[in-house]
Design brief:
The protein is mainly alpha-helical. It has seven helices and no strands. α1 packs across α4, α4 crosses α5 and α5 runs antiparallel to α7. The longest helix is centred in the N-terminal third of the chain and has 46 residues.
Length: about 170
């Protein structure tokens, strides 16, 4: 009988822990994300959407900028899923690489800028909670973002090269 009581207490405790975590999201993370989304939208309106878009178009000329800065800025300013619309400024051969780089940027940007991909925030919070036991979470977020820039650049370039290769192969 003691085992049954212990099981019931632990079973209920599991749901209590989940409820406590949920309440912490409601009082901490969700207001933060909402305020950040409002601030970014206000910044875009202040600068002017057309100016922001013209600047994004200028960045498409250079490979390094196209697959690092452009995905970062599109994720930062437009968040997921609107960030992909920036790909409209790219040549057809560059669009798959930009999409690949942007999808890959949505994960590392979340640690510093949770508004960019709020659905990924729960993954980040799980990872950073474990890391917080041994070091500063901000250091992890910066390192995650910097390594993300390397990964998105590689993915963008490789995807662009593969796109061009398969396009030529299909035309032959």
């Amino acid at each position: 009988m003691n085992y049954l009581t212990s099981f019931a207490e632990h079973f209920t405790g599991l749901f209590q822990a989940a409820a406590d975590q949920f309440v912490s999201f409601i009082t901490g993370v969700i207001p933060l994300v909402a305020v950040m989304i409002l601030a970014i939208n206000a910044l875009i309106q202040f600068i002017g959407e057309q100016r922001v878009m013209r600047f994004m178009k200028k960045l498409t000329k250079y490979t390094i900028m196209r697959y690092t800065i452009l995905p970062f800025l599109s994720c930062f300013f437009f968040a997921n899923p609107m960030c992909y619309t920036v790909g409209a400024f790219l040549e057809e051969d560059h669009k798959p690489g930009f999409y690949d780089a942007t999808v890959s940027m949505l994960h590392p940007i979340t640690g510093l800028f949770p508004h960019a991909n709020s659905s990924e925030l729960f993954v980040w919070l799980g990872i950073s909670a474990g890391f917080a036991q041994v070091a500063n979470e901000s250091e992890l977020a910066v390192r995650f973002l910097l390594s993300g820039f390397v990964v998105v650049l590689m993915r963008g370039i490789i995807t662009e090269k593969l796109t061009i290769f398969f396009k030529r192969r299909q035309q032959a």
